[in-house]
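Minutes, project check-in
Item: structure for the 272-residue chain
Input as provided by the requester:
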Amino acid sequence: MNLAQNQSSELPSSPDKQNAKNPAMSTQTKENSENSSNQERQLPIPAPSHPRQYRAIGLIQAKYKLTADQLTQGTLTTTDGTEIEAVLLGRIISLVKNHLDLEKNHLWVVYPRTKPKTTHLHVQIVGVWEPETLNKTENVVEQSTEEVEDGYFSIRGEVVYYSQEKEVIVVKIKQFPRKEGDKPKFFKLTLKGTLPDKPLHHFWDLKVRLVGETLTVEEGTDLGALPVKKKPGSKRGKGRPGGKKPYKSRKPTPRNTKTIPPVKKSIKKPSK
């Protein structure tokens, strides 16, 4: 039973639909597919399969505590006592019900999210990495929990805001559409840290560390500039949509004109 489900919604924007379904798997041959599948099971966060694969995924060692009576909503309490809002995605609910002792710490595979204009972190739980107890029936050499980095996050996307003074980085991340014909969706993630000069509208591969409930950038690689979409009519001047200048009459209306009533003249008749 492989329980670290890493088929993130943050998938590469690639025309290869078959690879897009599983970004860590090559589908050229059955043998290659099986080898890549084994490789994916050996890593909770596999290496990106596309140079500009968007994603936001990480690992948190913590206890999961239910909120009220709802299993899907709760909090993760980390080893340093930090509480982080969390929700369980559908694919892991049965696992939590039937296989995990929630009184113990587990290494959770999560998608991070931050609320707009804040660094307040909440996460979506998509898996748990505990191969030494949950994969006993599989003849696969897995990394033990001790060999996997707690608090490590892989963030890959476009930097759309940066303040060196405030040490704030906002990354825009594209979610690959789940169904054909759907438009891709985006979300923004707020991080703490600094980057080299002029990082805006470049695609960055960021190695991030969870400190308390703050995602802090430890290392970043600039993977190049992304095309900036220009607003319609930006070259033709201001005015109507599409850049057309507002219509002006050829004969301007005179200002401050007054209507003068006609002057009546009295005509005297000649005397007889």
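Outcome recorded: The radius of gyration is 31 Å.
No further action items on this chain.
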